[in-house]
């Protein structure tokens, strides 16, 4: 149900069973790589029913914020809405002892056919409280404005397309914003004035900017995520395909910003149309 608006999903000749087995192995490999780098990873098992084939990408239905609030998001595909699980929120609050103060529920926007798929639809600059968002069938102004008002974020919205001129389904495939470094495929932004506005906002907030090509976007180089480990060290997580697409100069800039953690997830990227950032819902709770 998601392939219609996600051109990164490709058909595979492998059986669904073979794809699932390979994806599970890749998922476990990413978890091991992150834990090996000192990241505390909370893994929650999927439920047998209902069938949720895209639950590997939890960041589309939930975001967790340092002030104790958790936001639930309206999603375009009906089968993805069943991914929203109150028991996971209870797990964070009760079993892990994390301080959840409020659940901000934006899901009523689904009734009007308006969607905002979490930190897929938005790339959040949490330090400067800016939400970057490319508009698409999965990202609409009404819930975007609702999020911004409730969570006290500024919105920088724009239009972006892939190399064939088709709107990009999620913002996090073309950009990532860390504390001091941002990566972006700015040539995907359609209008010159929007492109310049986005680049200016990134630079005005003190970010060094790595500019990606369409080829690198297609390799999911925009779908990386900055993290901190148990020692407070800054890390950048991405797929092996994304890492391999970067130039020596880009890698040097990234490594000055933080240690790179990568894992091969080729099956997930091809069959599900998302990458490492999509697989991670960061926990910003005490």
Account of the 3D structure:
- The chain is α/β, with parallel strands linked by helices.
- The chain has one domain: L-arginine/glycine Amidinotransferase, Chain A (5-stranded Propeller), CATH 3.75.10.10.
- Helices cover 30% and strands 18% of the residues.
- The chain is built from 9 helices and 12 strands.
- It has helices at residues 16-36, 86-95, 118-121, 141-151, 192-204, 214-218, 240-245, 248-257, 266-272; strands at 62-64, 69-72, 102-105, 122-125, 130-134, 154-158, 175-177, 181-184, 208-211, 225-228, 234-239, 259-263.
- The strands form 4 sheets. It has a 3-stranded mixed beta sheet, with no helix packed on it.
- The protein is globular and about 45 Å long.
Summarize the model shown:
By secondary structure, this protein is of the alpha/beta class.
Indicate the topology.
Elements: H1 16-36, E1 62-64, E2 69-72, H2 86-95, E3 102-105, H3 118-121, E4 122-125, E5 130-134, H4 141-151, E6 154-158, E7 175-177, E8 181-184, H5 192-204, E9 208-211, H6 214-218, E10 225-228, E11 234-239, H7 240-245, H8 248-257, E12 259-263, H9 266-272
Parallel strand pairs: 2-3, 5-6, 8-9, 11-12
Antiparallel strand pairs: 1-2, 4-5, 7-8, 10-11
Helix pairs in contact: 1-9
Keywords:
single chain; 286 residues; alpha/beta; L-arginine/glycine Amidinotransferase, Chain A; 3-stranded mixed sheet; 9 helices
In helices, the fraction of residues equals: 25-40%
Give the strand tally: 12
* CA distance, first residue to last residue: 36 Å
Return the CATH class. Alpha Beta
Instruction: Tell me the CATH architecture.
Output: 5-stranded Propeller
CATH superfamily: L-arginine/glycine Amidinotransferase, Chain A
